[in-house]
Amino acid sequence: MGTGTMRAVRLHAFGGPEELVYEETARPEPGSGEVLVRVHAAGVNPPDRYARCGFKNFPAELRPNWTPPLILGSDISGAVTALGPGVTEWQPGDEVFGLVNFPGRGSGYAEYVVAPAAHLAAKPAVLSHTEAAAVPMAGLTAYQYVFTHLRGRTGTTVLVNGAAGGVGHFTVQLVRVAGAKEVIAVASGRHEEFLLGLGVDRFVDYTRTPAGEVVRDVDLLIDTVGGPDAHRLLPTVRRGGRIAPVFLGDYQRERAAELGIVFNETMWQVRSSGADLAELSALIDAGHVRVAIDSVFPLRDAAGAHTRADRGHLQGKIVLNVESRGA
User: What CATH number has the domain spanning 138-263?
Assistant: First the structure.
């Protein structure tokens, strides 16, 4: 650690949002292959909340062995301020964004963060830092899912369940880039105008009518919700069609097999990649992908941001703005 200090949000004990404490702590220094980034904004993601609670929603054998105090957060947007040994691709002053050290500890809820140079990409020119911080985890999850996990094989008709959330709203746009001719979005009714504005062809309000009753013959279902009721979506998929679950769900696999439905593997995890993020950034700058912000909180009110996240039903992403007090 360096001799300087910074302000950060630290978790001293696992629990609710009230455990997130805004305080002074040591400023990190970059090591070999790393850069120090002055953070302007940080994204809030589900894994941050899982970590805050001690990963209690994970099976015991899969829980990371993290011990407080911790700085949460992996999505950042900011400017490079110092280079570690061996870094040649970035210079001080470069505006960058990235998914830092994921899966793992990113420490983004802070004024400064150390990041591997390879985890960063140049910030999209058309986005503010607040908007850019909303992209990395959700955007890369959708991008890597569509172009790596599915290898761009979307078919003609794609249904996206949970389409208004962080991953969902990127997915409805990226499947179109990948070649889908018809995109069907499933979300609650209050998100209809938002999703139609993103270019979806058809909207289904699941609070009024279950998608399984009104949608048929889709080539691909990308389900960003999962859960115990996931099997209700089986009737939407044609025989020979495919289900790509982003999260685990009960799809009644034997019944699905009888219906001739194919599954992509569920054990898949988004990973930090500056190269993939640069490709996504180019799509954003070209106007093919838009970024939605649900709400913005100051870094000092990370607890408020987590309280909002815990309520769910987001339209886009939650972002923390990091106040500057000078270099």
Answer: 3.40.50.720
Question: Which of helix, strand or coil describes residue 51?
Answer: helix
**Which residues on neighbouring strands pair with residue 157, listed in sequence order?**
182
Helix, coil or strand: residue 304:
helix
DSSP for 308-319 reads: HHHH---SSEEE
Structure token pair of residue 200:
């979806």
pTM: 0.94
Task: Give the residue ranges of DSSP H helices in 178-311.
Answer: 192-197, 211-214, 253-258, 274-285, 302-311
The CATH classification of domain 5-135+291-321, taken from the options 2.40.50.140, 3.40.50.1100, 3.30.530.20, 3.90.180.10 = 3.90.180.10
Under the banding of pLDDT at 50, 70 and 90, the label for residue 61 is: confident
Nearest Cα to Cα of residue 43 among 265, 240, 309, 259: 309
Q: What share of the chain is helix, strand, coil (3-state, %, to 5)?
A: 30, 30, 40
Query: CB neighbours of 286 closer than 8 A, spacing ≥ 6?
Result: none
Region 240-262 average pLDDT: 94
Across 236-245, average pLDDT: 96
User: What backbone torsions phi and psi does residue 176 show, to the nearest 5 degrees?
Assistant: -65, -45
> Which of 1, 23, 3, 27 is CA-nearest to residue 11?
23
| Domains in the chain: boundaries | 5-135+291-321, 138-263
**How confident is the model at residue 307, as a pLDDT?**
98
Average confidence (pLDDT) over 85-96: 98
Q: Are strands 34-44 and 75-83 parallel, antiparallel or unpaired?
A: antiparallel
Q: What is the distance of C-alpha 323 from the center of its chain?
A: 23
User: Cβ(227)–Cβ(214) under 8 Å?
Assistant: no
Q: Give the Cα separation of 58 and 39 in Å (integer).
A: 30
Q: Provide the token pair at 240.
A: 């020979």
Which residues pair with residue 298 across a beta bridge?
Answer: 321
Is residue 100 classed as helix, strand or coil in its secondary structure?
coil
